[in-house]
Amino acid sequence: MPSLTDISVIIVAQDAADTIEAACASVRWAAEVIVVDSGSTDGTVALAEAAGARVVHEPWRGYTGQKQFAAELCRHDWVLIVDSDEEVTDELAAEIAGLFAGDGAGLAGVDVCDMPRRNFVLGRHVRAWDPDRQARLFHRGRAVWGEDALHDTMRASADGRLVRLRGALLHKRCSGAGFEDYFSGRRMDERLMLVARELHGKGRRAGWWDVAFRPPLAFLKFYVAKGGWRDGVFGLLMAQKAWVSVQLKYAALWSLGRER
């Protein structure tokens, strides 16, 4: 494993006892690992501390706000974001180490690095969701934070200042999440309204075309174009999940347009 003295890792967590140990272990090579916990009651904090992380308690500020807060705690300008249910593969760690070799020559003129993420649902890799690239390694003095409602986003300050890495993050590989975590209507409703309100605030509106055609197109994208059919019933379920998610998102956006 590499040993990096100029990089900080931040992990935002709440009730992640089933995954926090693996997340911390995957970045034990970093100069510091900071876990920002927003009120865990399941042993997450003790497990993170036992893994060598520095734990800071902070009430939830939102997906982006919480990570901005965490980044300000870091000793180093180069920061890697790892979610509490993610792991950094050895290949990605080695690739990052290569960027920092030779006094960081590989990072000259770079603001942000993104990387693919391999997602797991019910213990299986969802190949149709690949490559799911995530901008997670950044220089906190140069990168620009986005304002997405549901996910933290990061972009370079100018064209040509983004590096695309090949090593992957693993998402929910060892998670104990069950059927309700992935297919619960309540959980889906909470998240989709955040997205619908964000789109509405940006001036987006949903018409008949969006409601009629976007859901089946999402199904075809994940089941046919991206090869979900190769995974049998599992692949079919993932494509149907995409159909339902898109349908509800645009139905919510359409509803907001009528209410206002």
Give an overview of the whole structure.
It contains eight helices and 13 strands. It is of the alpha/beta class and 260 residues long. The longest helix has 28 residues. The radius of gyration is 19 Å and the shape is globular.
What's this entry about, in short?
By secondary structure, the protein is of the alpha/beta class. It is built from 8 helices and 13 strands. Strand 1, helix 1 (20-25) and strand 2 (32-37) form a beta-alpha-beta unit.
Task: List its traits.
single chain; 260 residues; 8 helices; alpha/beta; four-stranded mixed β-sheet; globular; 13 strands
Secondary-structure map:
Layout: E1 7-13, H1 20-25, E2 32-37, H2 44-50, E3 54-57, H3 63-72, E4 78-81, E5 86-88, H4 90-104, E6 112-115, E7 117-121, E8 124-125, E9 134-139, E10 144-145, E11 154-155, E12 162-164, E13 169-171, H5 179-183, H6 185-201, H7 208-225, H8 232-259
Helix pairs in contact: 6-8, 7-8
Ends distance: 55 Å
Q: Determine the structural class based on helices, strands and strand pairing.
A: alpha/beta
Largest sheet: spatial strand order: 3-2-1-4-9-6-12
Specify the number of helices: 8
What overall geometry do the principal axes of the alpha carbons give? globular
Give the biggest beta sheet: 7 strands, mixed
The percentage helix is 40-55%
What proportion of the residues form beta strands (DSSP E)? 15-25%
Unreliable runs: none
Mean pLDDT comes to: 91
| Number of strand segments | 13
Order of helices and strands: EHEHEHEEHEEEEEEEEHHHH
Report Rg.
19 Å
